[in-house]
Amino acid sequence: MTAMPAVQAPSWQDEILPTLKSFDVKHVVYVPDAGHAAAIRGAEQDNDIVSVALTTEEEGIGYLAGAWLGGERGALLMQSSGVGNCLNTLALQTMTRFPLLMLVTMRGDWAEFNPWQNLMGQATEAALKLMGVRTWRADHPADIRRLVHGAATMAFNGGEACAVLLGQSLIGEKKWVK
């Protein structure tokens, strides 16, 4: 039996956590997702960051509101399918104006293999905008640092809700594994 080689994260994935840390992000909350694997692993290994695996995405909004009240910054990592779970809870940010930074890996996008993901994937950006969230879409590795930096600036300096949508073409095609 031969060992499988370790899968190396695409270089753009390695830019996310350092960019968050440059904004003094101390909390990374997430629902486990392969597209966020490098940032999640990095946060879990970093003694300066509290990383929390969530049961459901909307918990992250409340968690980050509490972190902000405690004087600390955080970011929510999730898939586009989880955005639907957050819509009602986004009113908390609107009413309190705490900084909310979300990084959303897209499903139901380019080359989606699972039709169940398509509806929310196609509605994600519009749904976020309807709830007052500013959005930017990253489809190329060169977009990551600039867009995450810009969204973090607006969130943390302006008390905005901001989301960077990480396109499925950036993440790579997913396939059913038998």
TrEMBL record:
It comes from Thalassobaculum fulvum. Coiled coil: none annotated. CDD domains: TPP_PYR_POX_like. The lineage of its organism: Bacteria, Pseudomonadati, Pseudomonadota, Alphaproteobacteria, Rhodospirillales. InterPro entries: THDP-binding, Thiamin_PyroP_enz_TPP-bd_dom. This is Thiamine pyrophosphate enzyme N-terminal TPP-binding domain-containing protein. Residues 16-107 form the Thiamine pyrophosphate enzyme N-terminal TPP-binding domain. Pfam families: TPP_enzyme_N. GO terms for molecular function: thiamine pyrophosphate binding.
